[in-house]
Amino acid sequence: MNAEGAGRAPLADLPVDRTYIGRAVPREGRGWWVQLERRTNPDGPETEVVAVGECATLERLEERAWEPVRSITDDPDVRVITAPRIDDELMMRVVGAWRAMADAKRAEADAARQVRAVVGELRDLGLSVTDIAFLTHVSRGRVSQLLAQDPRRGRRSGDARPRSD
Q1: Which helix (H) or strand (E) holds 118?
Q2: What is the assigned CATH class of domain 3-85?
Q3: How far is CA 79 from CA 39, 41, 51, 67, in A?
Q4: CA distance linking residue 126 with residue 144, whole number of Å
Q5: Measured in Å, how far apart are the chain's first and last C-alpha atoms?
Q6: For residue range 9-33, what is the model confidence (pLDDT) as tens digits?
C-alpha cells in the first residue's frame, strides 16, 4: 500500500450504499457460512450483517453472496466483494502466491517469445533441429513447428508439397 492510502479502510473508495461484502466463515465440519454485510460507516470498517447463507466451497462464495443482494436491490451499480475470513497474515501470503504465479506465467510467455525469436536464427547458422532443441530446451517437434511458422522462411508446414511446373 502506498503512503497516500495508508491508514484508510480497505474499502474506503467504494460507495457505502452500493457495496456489500460476502464473508465466508468456516463452518464446523465442512463448508462455509456466508455473511453478507453492508458497510455502515464511509470512513471506517464498520459493517452490519444483512443476510446469512452457506456454501460448500469457496468457489461458490461469490454466487452465494450475490443471491441475497439481488433480492435486496436491483441497482446496476451495486458491488459485491467476497473473501474468506482467514488470518490476515496468511491471506497476504496467499495473495503473494497468486502474484508469484502470475509473474511465473508472464516469465514463461516471455521465454516462449525469446525461444521463437532465436530458433530461426540458429537454423540460419546451420544448426540441426536436434541441436536447436538442445540449446533452447524445447522438443524437436516444437522446433520444427516454430521453423514452419517462421514468416522469414516464407513457407508454412502445409506449403511443403513439391511444385509441378
Answers
A1: helix 88-124
A2: alpha beta
A3: 12, 16, 15, 13
A4: 14
A5: 69
A6: 455 555 556 788 899 999 988 999 9
45: left (phi over 0), alpha (psi -120 to 50) or beta: alpha
Q: Which cell is 146 given?
A: 516454430
Q: What one-character DSSP code corresponds to residue 18?
A: G
Rounded distance between C-alpha atoms, residue 113 and residue 60, angstroms: 36
Partners of 79 in the beta sheet?
A: 19
Name the residue ranges covered by the structural domains of the chain: 3-85, 94-156
The closest alpha carbon to 112, from 100, 101, 104, belongs to: 104
Report the alpha-carbon distance of residue 45 to residue 85 in Å, rounded.
14
For cell 513447428, the residue is: 145
Q: Is pLDDT larger for residue 148 or for residue 17? A: 148
